[in-house]
UniProtKB/TrEMBL annotation:
Alphabetized UniProt keyword annotations: Disulfide bond, Leucine-rich repeat, Membrane, Repeat, Signal, Transmembrane, Transmembrane helix
Naturally occurring in which organism (per UniProt): Betta splendens (Siamese fighting fish)
Protein name stated in the entry: Amphoterin-induced protein 1-like
Top-level taxon of origin: Eukaryota
UniProt xrefs under Gene3D superfamilies: Immunoglobulins (2.60.40.10), Ribonuclease Inhibitor (3.80.10.10)
Length: 500
């Protein structure tokens, strides 16, 4: 008879062991999703280094921000960890002294709307090299003192127009190496830009169109900090004008990355071409050169001292190395650092020099002014004179034609009227040949002229008449408009041909 198996009860749990382990392994992810893992308190002995007001925990394999951070913390370094979300309660105390927060090289994919409500004194925020995909509206609004924001090397594709609202102190914004497809013009445009912003880096993104006209209108100190290299921009002469012009002014945004400023040539192959070479081949763009200021007499001209730095001290020197002073009534330095000159004279032509002095560097700009020896209206007056002369010539020609072809008809051609001559027309001074009426009648009956009576002009009288055929006091009379009678010499037949 078989006895009881003492290990049967123990064998059953041992037999169900693998199934229980498998069930527990499947339940663990669900538990992780439904509830946060317990946060560990700050460990200044093993995971972090706590020195005065600095807490440094890089590479500590942290999945969440440690608890109980010291309220006097000014610098918090949590880079190179495994942080995935930055919630609104990541710190339970207000860190009113915190000015630097380093969160780079984590796994951040989410930023709470109220994530920065407890660190409103931040001046430096590093969120680079994470997995962020979008920036929601007013996400950084509490950070009114923030000066530097690093967002490069993420996956940001969408940026709300109000994402950076409230950042009135922001000086440098790094957005390179993302998937941004739109240039954030609202950050640099005249009326909506961040007033303190001096650097905007949108290089190495998916931007295919730039607002070139708006970029050209920016002041030089802001152009100097707008980086847009390594983009897939289509080649055009407008793009060349912008890049070449900035290169001539030695702006860092172009000179520091000349080889990376490329564009795509038209065509199926989309060949990349250095933008600064577009004037030499392919599009044959016009070379960009520095232009001079041109003005006329009595004009007023404003010369800009467009420096690469903001908030610098500017001074001007006139041609002949003459400093601008209150004694010079024709030159005045404006509140924005520009120089107003005028009313201009010819001797105001020359090179004007602006000296800009700043904390980091000094800069010198030269502006050449050419004053023409005429007023602005002088050209218009000359043009009016030319048109007046042309019209006068046309009128003169028309009057000549009227005189030649539309003058009142002579008696020989007036309908129903005969020829009228002076009685003295048959004088020896006449150069015409007169045929008696009888001979004309005989010609009408079929006979010819039996003789011709010729009177030659006396040489002396010919000189006195200055080449005229009739003497001065013996001119032909014109036709009478309303009379059918005609007066003629008794000895003159009229209408006879002239004999040369």
């Amino acid at each position: 008879m078989a006895g009881p198996r003492p290990h049967a009860a123990a064998a059953s749990p041992r037999g169900r062991g693998p199934a229980a382990v498998l069930t527990l392994a499947l339940l663990l992810p669900a538990v992780g999703v439904s509830a946060q893992l317990p946060r560990t308190p700050l460990d200044c002995r093993r995971a972090c280094v706590c020195a005065s007001n600095i807490v440094s925990c890089p590479g500590a394999n942290l999945a969440s921000v440690p608890l109980a951070l010291p309220p006097q913390t000014a610098v918090l370094d949590l880079s190179f960890n495994s942080l995935g979300r930055l919630r609104d309660d990541w710190t339970t105390v207000d860190l009113g002294r915190l000015h630097t927060l380093l969160l780079s090289h984590n796994e951040l994919v989410f930023l709470s709307y109220e994530a920065f409500g407890h660190v409103t004194e931040l001046r430096y925020l590093d969120l680079s090299s994470n997995g962020l995909r979008q920036l929601d509206e007013f996400i950084f609004e509490p950070l009114e003192h923030l000066e530097v924001l690093l967002l490069y090397n993420n996956r940001i594709a969408q940026i709300d127009h109000s994402a950076f609202s409230g950042l009135g102190s922001l000086r440098r914004l790094y957005l390179s190496h993302n998937q941004v497809a739109r240039f954030p013009l609202e950050l640099v445009k005249e009326r909506s830009r961040l007033e303190a912003l001096q650097l905007l880096d949108v290089s190495s993104n998916r931007i295919k169109v730039l607002p070139l006209h708006e970029l050209q209108a920016l002041p030089a100190w802001l152009k100097n900090g707008v980086y847009f290299h390594n983009l897939s921009l289509p080649c055009s002469c407008e793009l060349y004008d912008v890049v070449a012009g900035w290169n001539l002014k030695e702006l860092s945004s172009v000179t520091d990355f000349k080889s990376s400023h490329t564009c795509l040539l038209p065509g199926p192959q989309k060949e990349r071409m250095p933008i600064l070479d577009l004037d030499k081949a392919h599009l044959n763009c016009t070379e960009v050169t520095m232009t001079n200021e041109v003005a006329y007499l009595q004009q007023y001209l404003v010369l800009d001292c467009d420096t690469r730095q903001k908030d610098v001290t500017k001074s001007w020197v006139l041609p002949g190395n003459i400093p601008v002073s209150q004694a010079n009534k024709s030159a005045e330095i404006r509140s924005d650092g520009g120089l107003q000159i005028g009313p201009l004279m010819v001797n105001d032509s020359g090179v004007y020099t602006c000296y800009a002095t700043g904390d980091n560097m000094n800069e010198t700009l030269h502006v050449t002014v050419v004053v023409f020896n005429s007023t602005v209206s002088g050209g218009l007056e000359n043009l009016k004179t030319a048109y007046t002369t042309l019209v006068a010539c046309i009128i003169s020609v028309v009057m000549v034609f009227i005189y030649l072809f539309l003058t009142p008809c002579r008696c020989a051609f007036c309908p129903g009227q005969g020829l009228e001559k002076d009685k003295a027309s048959d004088t020896p001074h006449s150069s015409t040949v007169s045929i008696p009426q009888a001979h004309r009648e005989s010609r009408a009956e079929g006979g010819g002229f039996p003789y011709r009576q010729v009177a030659f002009l006396d040489p002396k009288d010919q000189l006195e008449q200055n080449g005229r055929l009739n003497p001065i006091h013996e001119e032909d009379e014109e036709c009478k408009g309303f009379s059918g009678e005609r007066k003629r010499s008794e000895a003159e037949a009229g209408g006879a041909p002239m004999v040369v």
